[in-house]
Amino acid sequence: MPNANPDQDPVHNVYGLSRDIAAGARLDLQHYCFKELLGFNVSPQIPIPPDNVDLAIADIGTGTGIWLTDLARELPNARLDGFDSSIDQFPPKAWWPQNVSLRYLDALEPVPEELHGKYDIVNVRLFMFVIQDGDPKPLLANLRNILKPGGFLQWIEHNPHTVRVESPNHDDKRSAHDAIVNTVANRRKNDWVSQLPEHLQDAGFTSVSHSAHPFPPELRMPFTRINLLAGEEVSYVLDDNSGSESSGSRHRALLQEAFEESKNGVCMVWSPVVVVGRRELE
Q: pTM for the whole thing?
């Protein structure tokens, strides 16, 4: 596997992943794999005006802005605003679509009044590494605040309770993948993901829907490679890298072992969830 380089102090990094060029490439690939998996950028349960004029959409945790960049081709008349707690992965402004803007925002802190009630749709994807204490309520309150009355929240998330290891051949070595899956289950408090519909309802959202999207066989290897690359970033950003026997070095050795296993088709299979809710009309 290629070596990633740390770009943040592991003691102070909340995100848990890297923001270097390799991480940006991983995010872009991940986006297109998700689009292939789901078949949409915006859930068909969310109504879109045919001319999408006056439609305002926010992407929270936008990363490289790839979701908005792709969406801009579908909704050329909509206003598309991306927000992230780091601007390091934003592309140069010269390459932004004309209806896209990107700016700094820490969505875990109270959002500025100027953003309250501004958006018809708010998109959130893969905040499992951001919500550290198992409580999405503060973030949900902020997301609700920036929605217009009657606006829709779309939240796409990995469900760690659905992850399992599969292989074309039952006798293939898979111990490294098994160890990684156990690490994923234990690294963060993730019970909130399976309870996300209830959390939306508790936050005042109505018409809450939930759907699971298991990886089909043809996407299992691409998503496994993405997860291994993300694991390597975690090994540099969150683990101790003080020497050859450090936890970071051991983590990367395990990932390399898993990479070798994947050559025989051993893979990690998830069922990401899509949860949609509507801010009540006032």
A: 0.91
